[in-house]
Amino acid sequence: DYIGVDACMADLMRPGIYGAYHHVSVLGKENLPKNKIYDVVGSLCENSDKFAIQRELPEIEMGDLIIIHDTGAHGHSMGYNYNGRLRHQEIMVHEDGTVQQIRRNETLHDLFATLTYPELHENVDKLEK
């Protein structure tokens, strides 16, 4: 069984490139029995876009939040805009449980910021409205 998430190897390449292990949990289901086996996969059409293979997890339902732990600084610094995919925001969970956004979601303007093609920027403005 597969669990598809809205992240992909463009966000975290380490598992896809060299099989790095990252603990995976389901928010609010940490204490439930891990009675299902899933591959947790990304949203790209690549056979290596997998975050976890044959991982024992609680039963997962549409809308559950999947946490991929300990991605660290390498997650963003190794990331890239595969097929024009925009990079996600990043949050930090502090020891006291508070959550802080440390990087905002990229926009189309960010993706095309280095291009000097005025008509393109006008069309991006229209798309973002």
Structure description:
This protein has helices at 14-18, 72-77, 108-111, 118-128; strands at residues 2-4, 24-26, 36-41, 50-57, 66-68, 90-93, 99-103. The chain starts with a strand and ends with a helix. It is α+β, with helices and mostly antiparallel strands and 129 residues long. The longest helix has 11 residues, at 118-128. It is built from 4 helices and 7 strands; from the N terminus they run E-H-E-E-E-E-H-E-E-H-H. The mean pLDDT is 89. Strands 1-3-4 form a 3-stranded mixed sheet, with no helix packed on it.
Quick overview of this protein structure:
The chain has 129 residues and is an alpha+beta fold. The protein is 20% helix and 25% strand.
Q: What keywords describe this structure?
A:
alpha+beta; 129 residues; 3-stranded mixed sheet; 25% strand; 4 helices
Mean pLDDT: 89
Shape: globular
Task: Sketch the major β-sheet.
Answer: 3 strands, mixed
Rg (CA only): 17 Å
Q: From the helix content, strand content and strand pairing, which structural class follows?
A: alpha+beta
Strand content: 15-25%
Figure out the total of helices.
Answer: 4
Total beta strands: 7
Q: Provide the helix percentage.
A: 10-25%
Explain the layout of strands and helices.
Elements: E1 2-4, H1 14-18, E2 24-26, E3 36-41, E4 50-57, E5 66-68, H2 72-77, E6 90-93, E7 99-103, H3 108-111, H4 118-128
Parallel strand pairs: 1-3
Antiparallel strand pairs: 2-5, 3-4, 6-7
